[in-house]
């Protein structure tokens, strides 16, 4: 069944995007600033997976814990270098410093790995399984599984541990959190670590099917950014919903001629329904959303006082 | 570290001059025997200087992080290159199109720019860049796709091709000088001051009658125009058109130049461009990894040297030079508005309600303010007093109800439009531009409707409109008793004086109605008495004053009438004595019903 297959593809891609967007929005809430290196963290995770895969020759799922730890460490470094010195300055300073971090990551990767696309190892294997009439790739299923696992883990962390409550308090109101004795700086550093780990996981998940190049982060950055804008600035469920929406659009738009055969006979149908055109249409759609609703589709999650 | 800001402001004038002299001397020595290659790099530096000069309008003056500056440059390059190769149009003849099209593109996307917050604006500009890049690489028949187009002819002027490297360099740098002079003319006067207010406190800008949208719009179009010119020069200088110019690295280079050179300094944009573009030449090992180096430099400067190199140099110079005494400004009285007769209703709010999420911040509030009257507004914290001010001044839109100024309904108008109609206000936390003098903080609010690009271009060397605004501001400062501190930067003023300067600035809007949010906070008793006396004099001129205050000893004798808000509702109104004795008011403040002694 083509429809259920497409749905599975949407879910797999959306799950990976959701991890990137989640990392982005967690850091946004904790610092009030955009982390522009989030996309390049995905790229770093992809190359990390390649590196670990080459050294250990084990499936991606075994690499995941190692990769998460390594990326968390990278997140701590980024927090220390690009956020901590700027925490009392306007959020835009962090925006710029993380642009710099992204550029550094990109060019370091270029120096180390070259510009050619490389594939990371699959999570379990390259096979396909059939169940209930659906022919699904193991990789897609594994991506969904890993993403769900990570999100559940985060949910438990945030909702049911003292540590998670402190993280949330920090995100909600830095000043008050500081006043009641929460070590805010440490919480922000941990948030950076989590954000980087999530991006790294997404890098592992995505770099098998889509390969990784030093410049592939920019795309993920834009998508996470769009997901947050669509889902409501600062909203965590909104970020996931936004990511799924983008994935659905990206998978379904180029498949429109398959779903609606008359479109195939349209002039230049392969250009009109290409991946590139899909990106252009998405970008224009987001611009239209911004024009029509300057605070995103669902509005800011937080209302600011002037 | 608190600097002596007057020293900085002196040095500000000083840094550009020594830099220009050094540049000229070095150029005179180096240029005659420079290689073709070195000349080419120096031309590229000039082109990036123009790009960064343009970027300093939107990123520096307006304080908005645009990520489309590289895109505008690319569009200029493509327009100029395609016109030259396919239509045989030389550089200068194509200029209207190669500058005009980026400006038109900016115009198209400026609609969201007018109101977007920084992070949305950054995304919008990022998306524009992505769209343009994709369209250019796809549209092969016109743009040459990913391969680009070769054989773009060299620069030409009035029918003469400019063949040699040195003449090309001189043309580029002549344009840099012209572009720098234009940027200076635009930002040196009242428009520059208005930009300073916009970027330090956008909400406040609207409250003194500055139109923030128009200012951002102006800055955005100017940056696009400069970028278009830079792109056009670029494509003729290197002779090939390639989609590389639309890539993010160009934007990063531009951002690095702006940050390292100091984003508000014309000399900084130019010096930053020379430094950044020449850097890979000076440090040869960087040539393949120059972007890596730019990234590190950008990070380092943002973290360690927030103002950039030019401002750091100014601070250094400021240590060695002392400021010349500021020439005293002779005060000039402002022509007052024709005010309605005393006792006429000026401002009326009726049935005003607003809800934030689940909280009813204001509920069916109706009150009026008469000419020449001082109305005190009290109520516990969170009772909706400041929200009421924010609705009257157009910052919030009410869910229901109406506000009339005279006979005019004003709900739905923009804050700056409301300010121009005659409603001025102060904020709970004083919002002045710290590096501007007290005098200029007031002067910027004089006739804010007459501050714009056209006026800035028309101004002569002796800036007449600014001199008049300063003279009138001086009169207002004197009137509020802060005239002695006119030349002090607002950041160095004691809190009490900052309050007075803020009120003087509100008066500079020549208001019919003046709304004051806790004006006595931070003042000692003598200062409070002095302030009360001065506010009474303002009211005696026929202005209606609405004063939010918790300080009863200050407010009760000052107010003609008083009103009390609690949980968004008006619970009492009348003379100060009546309101203070009202059981509901006492309960609102103390939390328990109190039996009143009879």
Textual characterization of the structure:
- The complex is a heterodimer of chains A (306) and B (598).
- In chain A, 73% of the residues lie in helices and 3% in strands.
- Chain A has 306 residues and is an all-alpha fold.
- Chain A has a domain of 214 residues.
- In chain A, strands 1-2 form a two-stranded antiparallel sheet.
- In chain A, α1 crosses α9, α3 crosses α8 and α5 packs antiparallel against α8.
- The C terminus of chain A is likely disordered.
- Chain B is an alpha/beta fold.
- Chain B folds into two domains: 206 residues, no CATH class; 246 residues, Rossmann fold, CATH 3.40.50.300.
- Chain B is built from 24 helices and twelve strands.
- Chain B has a six-stranded mixed beta sheet, with helices on both faces. A four-stranded antiparallel beta sheet of chain B has the order 4-3-6-7, with helices on one face. A two-stranded antiparallel sheet of chain B has the order 1-2.
- In chain B, β9, α21 and β10 form a beta-alpha-beta unit.
- In chain B, α2 packs antiparallel against α10, α3 runs parallel beside α5 and α4 runs antiparallel to α10.
- Chain B is elongated, with a radius of gyration of 28 Å.
SSE layout and pairing:
The complex is a heterodimer of chains A (306) and B (598).
Chain A: H1 2-31, H2 38-56, H3 60-83, H4 91-113, E1 128-131, E2 134-137, H5 138-160, H6 162-172, H7 174-179, H8 184-209, H9 217-231, H10 236-259, H11 269-272, H12 275-292
Chain B: H1 5-30, H2 36-61, H3 69-87, H4 91-113, H5 118-138, H6 140-143, E1 156-157, E2 160-161, H7 165-187, H8 190-200, H9 202-207, H10 212-238, H11 248-261, H12 266-282, H13 290-304, H14 308-320, E3 345-356, E4 359-370, E5 374-378, H15 385-392, E6 400-405, E7 408-409, H16 415-421, E8 423-425, H17 438-443, H18 453-458, H19 464-480, H20 495-508, E9 513-517, H21 525-540, E10 544-548, H22 552-558, E11 561-566, E12 569-574, H23 576-581, H24 583-590
Parallel strand pairs in B: 5-10, 5-11, 8-9, 9-10
Antiparallel strand pairs in B: 1-2, 3-4, 3-6, 6-7, 11-12
Helix pairs in contact in B: 1-12, 1-14, 2-7, 2-10, 2-11, 2-12, 3-4, 3-5, 3-10, 4-10, 11-12, 11-13, 11-14, 12-14, 19-20
